[in-house]
Amino acid sequence: MRPNDCLDPPAPIRVAMLGCGTVGSEVLRLLTEHAGELASRIGAPIEVVGIAVRRPHKHPQVPSELLTTDATLLVNRTDVDVVLEVIGGIDPVRGLLLDALKSGKGVVTANKALLAEDGAALAEAADASGADLYYEAAVAGAIPLLRPLRESLAGDRILRIAGIVNGTTNYILSAMAEAGAGYAEALDQATQLGYAEADPSADVDGFDAQAKAAILASLAFHTRVVATDVYCEGISAVTSADIAAAESLGCVVKLLAICERVPTVDGSPGEAVSARVYPAMIPAGHPLASVDGAYNAVFVEAESAGQLMFYGQGAGGAPTASAILGDLVSVCRNKVAGGHGPRDYVHANLAVQPMGHTPTRYHISLDADDRTGVLATIAGVFAQHDVGIATVRQDMDPAETGHGARLVIVTHTAPDAALAATVASLAELDEVLGIDRVLRVENLGRPVTALGVA
User: Which of 29, 70, 226, 287 pairs with 365 at a CA distance of 20 to 30 A?
Assistant: First the structure.
């Protein structure tokens, strides 16, 4: 007889699932197919004891004895160790997860909207009971990103995070650049391929990326940042002319989520946090510029580690399920060991800087009268608002337009409010016939080497 033959088998870690849609069903499949291997990694088997869904008859692949429509009863069962949530949305999920955490149950979630709005309450509940709260899948799908920010870089000082965190918008912008498609045509393609929802507003209006930026900023800068703190613009106003203008400058257009440390506005000692989402021109030589299709990539700059880039599939049932299972394994290991994982420390409590104070650059294309003194008048408006002009060129001959000259101006870095005021003043000039387009320009520092995390 071997020494361990007399030992009782380890008790299973009992898991309640909330939701069983595209992601949830993939998680359930992987839990079933890899049960033995997962048990070996954890030190105990995982047992799914219930799955809360709205319409049980829509899930014939799930054993009927596991299905319930009473999520509250399931979450509050005394035999449940971990609650795995893949429903999404704010309510009733908020109350369910708070109940789970307050009772000491571990929680694994991919709910970026809830975390961006009420992450503080969830974290406080987890801290109070000693429960685990893991949410790697909430940002960038299968890409290991939140765990490196929380753990691998815990001894470093993160300076900036900039990335492409929404696959739908990246596919649309890539299609516009590669095929010369207009926005509407590219959106139709994304919808047909399943990258865009029937109602794509959360993606194309930037709200999905906004929630993810709030989560990234909170982790990176140890400061509680909510979605409403993050300035947000979507891509619906981006035109094929914008894409062509970027190409002429050696740039591409990407929807970026940018979170960074910035000096305080009044010049006093200390720092603030800037968090924003908008389409911007970036140099074609930067690694983010080559991220095409529905892929995500996030560029992290830390004081000691330097520049890192994380790249991979940012959405979809299988990639998201991979991140969720990674979290579930960690939470179950902690249960077996009788401890808990790292917490989300928000000790820095930095102020969030309004977008108006955030330094950026603009690319402005406008039509103006083709006569002496007009350029000087336009330059005077920039000087009035203390905005420097980096480059100016005439993009179109007046003979082609029949009414004036097309001027393309790229500014030096200035506060966003000063740049916006400059554009507003230009629009009031009689000499300016129309402002064709305005896009921000982001340099994103020197080029970096991608680490190939996929």
Answer: 287
